[in-house]
Amino acid sequence: MDAPPQDIVDRIRPATVVEVVDDICHACGPGSKTRAYLYAKLPNGETRAYCGHHGTEKLPSLKEQRATIIDLRDRIEP
Fold it and tell me: Domain DUF7455 spans what residues (predicted)?
């Protein structure tokens, strides 16, 4: 008799969550309605959300600051 199939999905590891006030780009300005695709939580607890353009621009600095990053730029439609 064959062994039953194994469930190999990692169900224990929690998903990374970055909670932001609004789902709009932090760098585009206060009146902007530009959707965010890159989210970051800085070590001091502050959060940021960036559009694809500003996310690409800010990513090296965010990594240098050891921010927790969720990058959804691959979801931007051409």
Answer: 23-76
